[in-house]
Design a protein that fits this description.
Structural class: alpha+beta
Largest sheet: 3 strands, antiparallel
Helix content: 40-55%
Shape: rod-shaped
Radius of gyration: 43 Å
Strand content: 5-15%
Order of helices and strands: HHHHEEHHEEEEEHHHHHEEHHHHEEH
Strand order of the largest sheet: 4-6-5
């Protein structure tokens, strides 16, 4: 029974020891100031990379928005134009989401990175100017003269040479610790970090020890074989007369790293504790470092996926696309929450892009790289695929060209679909002469009110009454449904252009 208790006690102590140490291999690789500086620098770099990656993500989605907007404007098929417009709207939504996240986190990320870079630089400075090796002194003088004890004071002068660490000390040491590169990846789950104590950041307490033997005066101008102030001809350990001093840091343990828990247990509502009030002083303390690392690992900017890689399966559950599809692609405007869900969205997307799993890629995205478009305005000509034109310096020119074409086509269709007979029906009220009014088809002069007005009992020229009552039949001339799509697409393109300037 007793051996079993020993085993349990050993396991319990081991567990306690493990809990008070870094759990990740990167944190465990921090064993000295060099590796601590590298670990800290890598965390600072990861924060800056988080921000730069988010900016690239936003820029990529903005480029996709431009490309898809240009594709929508260049389509002659209104339904395809709407398909590209929906994808462009999704790219705009995702770019806006990243931009908002950047705005919310940018200052905090940059501040945290600045603090950690400063801490890493201070650690390297300490390592360079405060090496762990013992500093030894050399006698440079031993004479009698005015001093602490009057005119006959015996003074031994000891010079301690300033030493600095080798320039490649940290480089060589950290090269053998590849696990340090995992610092950022393991930080979210890390519990403890090893930090340099604050005592190393400023002036440290010193202890001066003086040793003497025999009659010091007899050792004036003499030196031991090992360079101490003492009798000539023998080492200091056997000298009959001599004096020497030792200057050392009072607490050698100041040089050791301390293990610190990242989270704070003081207040459950503040897992990182209270922000240190002295965060902006000359040196970055251990507490400032702990707090910065604790809060920094919460600063994340979610990456938004590329719209150019989308599929119906990936978009049907996307809330932005659900709303876009319901507003732009569906046959009827959604009025119920159940109509803006996975199933109806999937149905609408398949009707727009195709039922195949890769329909969006095959029927729409692939077309962005296929076939050259020619933009010609006066003596300016631009040629290239939609992808090329959207990335070129003449993107705005190309977009204006395609939108102008669509607008002129819309006006032409509108003009063609207005029947000539309709034009003849208007203008009765413009006639002031009675005879001219009565001669004009469809008009009759009203003697009582002295004005020319429309005669409902008279068929306009070129038409025939087929109504049993003698009144004209009503002829309805519908504008082709294609025109409705063109108008909608044109207005949508204008909206997309406005969105572009908002997300950039």
């Amino acid at each position: 029974m007793q051996p079993a208790l020993y085993v349990l006690a050993f396991l319990a102590l081991s567990a306690m020891r493990t809990k008070s140490q870094p759990t990740g291999t990167a944190g465990q690789a921090v064993t000295d100031r060099c590796s601590e500086a590298e670990y800290t620098k890598l965390l600072a770099n990861s924060l800056e990379n988080e921000l730069s990656t988010a900016v690239k993500n936003k820029d990529q989605l903005t480029d996709e928005f431009k490309e898809l907007t240009l594709a929508a404007a260049a389509q002659s098929d209104p339904r395809r134009s709407l398909g590209f417009s929906a994808l462009a709207a999704l790219a705009a939504a995702r770019a806006a989401a990243v931009r908002t996240a950047i705005q919310q986190n940018e200052q905090a990320i940059l501040k945290a990175a600045k603090v950690l870079h400063k801490r890493a630089a201070q650690l390297l400075q300490i390592e360079s100017t405060a090496p762990a090796t013992e500093l030894t002194g050399t006698k440079t003088g031993f004479a009698r003269g005015a001093g602490t004890f009057g005119a006959s004071t015996e003074r031994c002068t000891i010079d301690i040479k300033a030493e600095t660490a080798a320039t490649d000390t940290c480089t060589n040491g950290n090269t053998n610790k590849p696990n340090l590169q995992l610092a950022a990846a393991q930080l979210a789950a890390e519990t403890h970090i090893k930090l340099t104590k604050d005592a190393m950041l400023g002036r440290r307490a010193l202890t001066l020890t003086a040793d003497a033997i025999g009659t010091i005066a007899t050792a004036t101008t003499q030196a031991t074989n090992d360079g101490k102030c003492g009798s000539t001809g023998s080492p200091a350990s056997s000298a009959a007369n001599g004096v020497w001093g030792f200057l050392a840091f009072k607490t050698t343990a100041d040089n050791d790293l301390q293990t610190t828990k990242i989270k704070s247990d003081a207040d459950p509502a503040k897992p990182c504790g209270t922000a240190p009030t002295h965060a902006e002083v000359l040196t970055v303390t251990a507490e400032v470092t702990r707090y910065t690392i604790c809060t920094a690992r919460q600063l994340k900017i979610p990456r938004q996926l590329s719209v150019l890689e989308a599929t119906v399966a990936s978009l049907k559950g996307d809330r932005d696309m659900q709303l876009i599809a319901a507003a732009l692609l569906a046959e009827k405007q959604a009025t119920k929450a159940t109509e803006v869900a996975d199933e109806p969205t999937e149905k609408t997307l398949k009707e727009t892009y195709g039922a195949e799993p890769d329909a969006i890629q095959k029927n729409f995205i692939a077309k962005l790289k296929e076939g050259d478009k020619t933009v010609k305005i006066a003596d300016t000509t631009i040629t290239g695929s939609i992808e090329v034109l959207s990335k070129g310096s003449k993107f705005a020119t190309a977009l204006a060209f395609f939108q102008g074409q669509a607008y002129r086509a819309q006006r032409l269709r509108t003009k063609i679909t207005v029947p000539a007979a309709e034009e003849k029906k208007t203008g009765c009220e413009k006639e002031t002469n009675k005879d001219d009014c009565n001669k004009k088809p469809g008009c009759k002069y009203n003697d009582g009110e002295n004005k020319c007005e429309k005669d409902s009992a008279q068929a306009p020229e070129g038409t025939t009454n087929t109504n049993a009552t003698g009144s004209n039949s009503i002829v309805i001339h519908k504008v082709p449904i294609l025109l409705e799509f063109v108008v909608l697409a044109s207005r949508l393109e204008e909206l997309l252009v406005k969105i572009f300037f908002l997300i950039c």
